[in-house]
Every structure is written in C-alpha cells, then in structure tokens.
Amino acid sequence: MLSLEQVHGFVVVAEEGSFRRAAERLRMTQPPLSRQIQKLERDVGVQLLDRTQRQVELTPAGAVFLAEARRLLALADAAPGTARLVAAGHTGTVRIGFTATAGFGFLGPFLNRISHALPTVELSLGEAVSARQFEELASGKLDLGLCRPPFDRTEFDGVLVHRDPLVLAVPQGHRLPDRAVAVDQLEGERLLVYAPGPARYFAELMARVLSGVSHDVGDRVTQVHTMLALVAAGRGVALVPETASHLHPEGVRYLALTGVRERAELYAVWRGHPANPALRRVVDLLETWHDA
Length: 292
Prior knowledge:
Layout: H1 4-16, H2 19-26, H3 30-44, E1 49-51, E2 56-58, H4 60-87, E3 92-98, H5 100-105, H6 107-117, E4 121-127, H7 130-139, E5 144-147, E6 156-164, E7 166-171, E8 181-182, E9 190-194, H8 200-209, E10 216-221, H9 224-232, E11 238-241, E12 252-258, E13 264-271, H10 277-286
Parallel strand pairs: 3-4, 3-5, 8-12, 9-10
Antiparallel strand pairs: 1-2, 5-13, 6-13, 7-11, 7-12
Helix pairs in contact: 1-2, 1-3, 1-4
C-alpha cells in the first residue's frame, strides 16, 4: 500500500536530483528519506531511481511513475475542497429523467435555465415514460423526473413546470381547413388514442377533451412520435401536446383547437427530503419558478 508521504518524497527527490537537497527541502534527514524511497520501490515492484555518487536520475519506469505521482498528489490536494463543494451543493451530479414529449421543445430551455443558475452542477439525462421514472425515483436511480401527473405525494414532492396546450395533428389533404377548429368538428373522425396503461395520463386527458364527441377509435399507442407517424400514414387524426409540433414529420399538419381549456401538465418530481446536495440546490431553484 503506497502512502502519500512516500509519493511526495519520491517526487521531491526526482525534482531535486539529490537525496540531500530533497531532504533539506522536506526538512528531514537523509536516511529516513532514503528508506522511504526504498520501501516505495519495493511496494511498486520496480526500480524508480538510478543512484550515483553525484546525482539521482529517473529510470524509464520512474519517469512514468513521476507523472502519475504528480497527478495523484494533485487529486489529493484538491479532494478536501471538492468534498466541501459537493457537501454545499456547489458541484455534483443530478440525474434527470424526462418523457419524450418533454424532450421536443421544453427540455432544452429547462436545462439551460438550471445550468445558467448552477453552472458547476452536472446534469445527467435519461428518457423514460412517467411510470418508469417514478420507479427509478423510488429506487434512487434518478434524482429528478420530468413526469406527467398524478404521482404519490406521500412519497414524492413536485412542482408544476410546464402547461402545454393541445393541438390536432392531421394528415396532409385532410378535409379540415388550415385554421383553428373546435372540438365538435371532430364528430365522426377516426382518432388515434393513447393506451390507458402506459399512457394513462394522456388517455384520460383525451377522454375529457372529447367527452360528448362521437368518434371512431383508431390505433392505441403510447408514444407521441409513433402517433404522428400513424397520422402521416393516414390512419387517423390525433390530439398531441403543442410541443410535439416542434417535430415536422412529412405529411402532417397541426391545427389549433378552440374552446379547449385542458392543458398537458408536466411536473418536476423528486423524492421527499433529497440527500443529494446538488439536487437540493436544483429543487430550491425550481421552487422559485412561477411561469409554468
């Protein structure tokens, strides 16, 4: 087992090219320094220094070891300060999950806002549906999730960070004109719908918006980009969050909806009483935002 004292002694000897001068610089006598370097060489298993009567020179192995020794000492010097920064939340990593629709138009500005306020905090990203994010938040694999409601408020805390209007995606050549349409104009249309299990939130949101409108039920899917691909193929029309209009698949038009007050809500969610100091700083920042 190498000690930092041994490594430091070796670096000074290598820099001075003399045990005598190195001992003077280290404010110690020469014999214990020589024994220290001999023990280091035994521990490493190779000769690091060539000793002559006039000077000390590095062996080829010693030259390589010197570079690594300096790096090790630099890390050791920096470690206490880094630990203090991490404990205060000034640095560290926050693992963030996000849904596909959050990634279309909201995610970039959201991350930029955090990075601007907390430039030394690293943000690590992973895409997952809301249900999977809740599982990974509970297991500790994620620190923060950008999820659709509802969520268990006895286990998680969260703040509303975005409210997205709904738009209608239709195939090119569809009968509806290129202007805002009312929901009752969807009477008799074939609508692609969200699977009630994995896409429960959007399935329930769509049911509320279309309440009282008679329509044919088309394919059931879980991801918005899949729904848009099916719209482009002419398999129906679909209600999607407005951020999805950042995608421009060939053969799809987006129409505004009139008279619809429902919005697709997105929450930043985390486990209560976060232990990660960097996450606590992100949470403090989120709780000051009031522009969702």
